[in-house]
Design a protein that fits this description.
about 20% strand, Tetrahydropterin Synthase, Chain A, 3 domains
């Protein structure tokens, strides 16, 4: 089922003609009664039927709206011209909004790629682009959009981990742009037969489920501490190496291996400690 444009007549001239016909019907009817003229009464009856026929065929279309016309269950065509229009009165007319719409899905509880329960929700921006498909291919296109979008969101969330574990791995929390593009593609594939275009799909809520939120927070904190400590240790080792090289290059002091090890230990304690060290001055010989 594809959309088929169909022509329609401007409604204003038809409305004016119907008003004139209604006035003529009244004049013929009353003059026919006064003069007992059967032909005038019959003409007024015929003119009244034509007036009703003309008025029934009138309908209005708002901007960014389409009217899907069918005749006894058979699709005839779609009219998109805004304003007052006229078509065959026997045509059934169903109006479909083609304005841009959006909705936010409910918070869904799903398992991510690692099996951890998470809560996720998304905002979907969509628009009807084929009114005939929206009317005839699905029973209720608005309900279809909501249900299929949530199904696509569930499928997408289970395809990625919540947090990034390896370099280059796409995760829900660390790669919002890639996740949004994947979600938009997934929803568009499901809604293609309903004549709906997905303009944008973005995650609006993402969190661990309440039952594991505290444990996952502790894991994130532990990962952050480990990453910070790793950088501190790497920097401290570099500083110790630089200090030893400078002392040897400038021949400031000659240290044997035991004293070097003691100096390295002291420097690492100072550089890697959480709090500032209290210096201890040695007034005697180091040997």
């Amino acid at each position: 089922m594809k959309e088929l444009p169909i022509r329609s007549l401007p409604g204003i001239p038809v409305l004016i003609a119907a008003l004139l016909a209604a006035a003529s019907t009244a004049w013929l009817f009353f003059t026919g009664i006064e003069q007992a003229s059967a032909p005038r009464i019959a003409a007024s009856a015929v003119l009244a039927i034509l007036t009703v026929f003309a008025v029934i065929g009138l309908y209005s279309i708002q901007p960014n709206q389409a009217a899907v016309l069918s005749l006894f269950g058979k699709y005839v065509g779609t009219v998109k011209e805004a304003g007052l229009r006229w078509n065959n009165p026997f045509y059934a007319k169903r109006k479909v909004s083609q304005r841009v719409r959006n909705f936010e899905s409910g918070r869904l509880k799903v398992n991510d790629l690692d099996g951890s329960p998470i809560e996720i929700a998304a905002v979907i921006v969509w628009q009807v682009v084929d009114a005939a498909e929206a009317v005839f291919n699905v029973d209720d296109y608005e309900s279809f959009v909501h249900i299929q979008s949530e199904a696509a969101l569930r499928a997408m969330a289970s395809s990625y981990p919540y947090d990034q574990h390896d370099d280059g791995q796409v995760a829900l929390r660390s790669h919002p742009q890639e996740i949004s593009e994947h979600l938009q593609v997934q929803i568009a594939e499901r809604l293609g037969r309903a004549g709906v275009e997905v303009i944008e799909a973005r995650i609006s809520h993402l969190a661990y489920a309440p039952e594991i939120a505290q444990a996952m927070l502790q894991r994130q904190q532990a990962n952050a501490v480990i990453a910070a400590r790793t950088r501190i240790v790497a920097g401290a080792v570099g500083m110790v190496e630089m200090a030893l090289e400078e002392l040897q290059k400038n021949d400031v002091v000659q240290l044997d291996e035991e004293r070097k090890a003691q100096m390295v230990s002291n420097l690492l304690v100072v550089l890697c400690g959480d709090r500032g060290m209290q210096p201890v001055l040695n007034a005697g010989s180091i040997y």
